[in-house]
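Friendly challenge for the regulars: who can give me the structure tokens for this chain first? No prize, just bragging rights.
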Amino acid sequence: MKKLLAGVFFLMPIALLAQSSTELAIAERVYQGKLPCELGASVILKADANAPGYFDVQLGRQKFRMFPVETTTGAIRLEDKQAGAVWLQLANKSMLMNQKLGKRLADACMSPDQIVIAANLIKNPPPSVLDAAVEVAIK
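First reply, four minutes later:
Bragging rights claimed.
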């Protein structure tokens, strides 16, 4: 974003761009802290106190500056468009992906709340979409 000051354009840092109320609401639901992932990896998510809605995400030496993006599925999605990184947070797990490379960087990352939900899904699995189709076909 460019800003005119005394006849000269200055580039505004991305962190200073305002977030919409929807994006700020999404940001409030992001799990923060050190989340253990599969294969011994862990991802650290930390909200930026100086830029509401923005998060610093770290996997090992890789660091990303992410912000919320609205989805149609209800999943929480954070993006670092410049790096091509995406953080997806579902009810039972989260994952860090690199869209430019087309691969997952970290999978099955879980906060304490997600661990509880994942355990409950194992004990009480939701009905399969295929099971519902069989029931309809039998009737």
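The beta strands are 2-5, 8-11, 33-36, 42-47, 55-59, 62-69, 76-80, 85-89, 94-98, 103-109. Residues 1-6, 8-12 have pLDDT under 50 and may be disordered. Your move, everyone else.
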